[in-house]
Amino acid sequence: xxxxxxxxxxxxxxxxxxxxxxxxxxxxxxxxxxxxxxxxxxxxxxxxxxxxxxxxxxxxxxxxxxxxxxxxxxxxxxxxxxxxxxxxxxxxxxxxxxxxxxxxxxxxxxxxxxxxxxxxxxxxxxxxxxxxxxxxxxxxxxxxxxxxxxxxxxxxxxxxxxxxxxxxxxxxxxxxx
Length: 177
Fold this sequence. Notes:
- This protein is 77% helix and 0% strand.
- The protein has 7 helices and no strands.
- With 177 residues, it is an all-alpha fold.
- α2 (20-31) packs antiparallel against α7 (146-174).
């Protein structure tokens, strides 16, 4: 009798989460919930979280050199263990952004992170707006169960995109370099 270990559970969960069908079903199920029905705290977190985290994480890393060194070592190991990025026998050097020190680089990294987070926030707000407008448009067209139609379309599109991505990855692995 085989016992299920934590690594087996993690591997099975990763396999499930990377499966195009399960992602398509999950996307479709989440699309059934209109963004306007999200709790206010969740909407606010989705909008304001990225710029706050984008500015706070670089500042935290700059103030904690030990954490920065651990992160840079883990990034180098992960980069080396990824077969698609492996170039030689020794691990690549960690990214300079992780190793950089000083107030000027900290400020620029925090500003860059905040700007990227603000861009993500704009995309989230745009997604909320598009969700509402798509549903209104389907209602105007008198399509029954507009959320169901949106869910089916979103789930099918997610499934198709992930199948295409897997197909490209398979072709890339088998193409000689």
